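Task: sequence design from structure.
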């Protein structure tokens, strides 16, 4: 058995599948480039909130790489800083929703007495459109970064809970789990040793989709004026500010929109590649 395990560990097939996946290569390189630009770009760019009325509405080239907006602010600098904020929201939402959803899903799937209660609450949350729930929360609590993250996390939790619960319901019927129960192993130990490892692969894939969805929802909230405050650049509120001048200066919306599309597309491509790599049924057909 140990020899088979060693052979499985040394088998380069999953890595080969991952690296040979064109979507993953595109997504990984694109996302790495965006992270690099948003991470170190603002250090060399101009102040994204610096106003220069004499330099307003300049086209790309005459007013910098991406031109200037209606207040003379550098669009390139604002896109880089906005990307840092949008990526922060996406990663924070993915981490929090997966962490909370994993905990609730494990409890709902394994402890039958709590299953009905937890799932009815999750069904209630899923019945409310995510955008309406987020707008309502932000309207009640105020538009801050923390409020936006929490408002996006809550609608994502039920999807994670349902995913984890379905995995737990399947795994808990396996003979090795039943043997552990018969041996008197504590519930926490069974969940940690036997059930939790089976949820890792689907959760990693789900987290990538949540990250992309969160960036889109944050941009929608910002475009509607219900997201991060305008004094903090994000891709959504940059596009919202430029929509009045779209016919005259389309670059104010085009460049943050392009950055958002590329970021979400890259994350989704990575998620598809991870699904193909981590799903043994798909991986076997690709070898």
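Answer:
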């Amino acid at each position: 058995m140990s020899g088979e395990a060693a052979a499985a560990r040394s088998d380069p097939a999953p890595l080969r599948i991952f690296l040979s996946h064109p979507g993953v290569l595109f997504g990984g390189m694109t996302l790495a480039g965006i992270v690099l630009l948003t991470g170190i770009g603002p250090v060399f760019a101009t102040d994204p909130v610096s106003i220069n009325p004499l330099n307003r509405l300049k086209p790309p080239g005459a007013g910098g790489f991406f031109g200037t907006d209606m207040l003379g602010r550098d669009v390139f600098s604002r896109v880089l800083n906005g990307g840092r904020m949008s990526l922060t929201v996406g990663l924070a939402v993915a981490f929090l929703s997966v962490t909370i959803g994993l905990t609730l899903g494990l409890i709902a799937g394994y402890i039958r007495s709590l299953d009905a209660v937890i799932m009815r609450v999750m069904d209630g949350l899923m019945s409310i459109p995510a955008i309406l729930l987020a707008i309502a929360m932000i309207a009640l609590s105020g538009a801050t970064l923390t409020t936006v993250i929490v408002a996006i996390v809550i609608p994502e939790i039920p999807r994670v809970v349902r995913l984890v619960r379905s995995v737990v319901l399947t795994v808990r019927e396996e003979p090795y789990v039943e043997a552990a129960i018969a041996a008197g192993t504590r519930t926490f130990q069974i969940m940690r040793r036997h059930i939790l490892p089976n949820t890792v692969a689907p959760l990693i894939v789900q987290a990538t989709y949540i990250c992309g969805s969160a960036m889109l929802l944050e941009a929608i909230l910002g475009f509607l004026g219900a997201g991060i405050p305008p004094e903090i650049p994000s891709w959504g509120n940059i596009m919202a500010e430029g929509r009045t001048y779209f016919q005259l200066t389309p670059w104010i919306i085009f460049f943050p929109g392009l950055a958002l599309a590329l970021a979400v597309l890259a994350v989704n491509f990575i998620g598809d590649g991870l699904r193909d790599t981590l799903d043994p049924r798909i991986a076997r057909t690709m070898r």
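Residues 1-12 have pLDDT under 50 and may be disordered.
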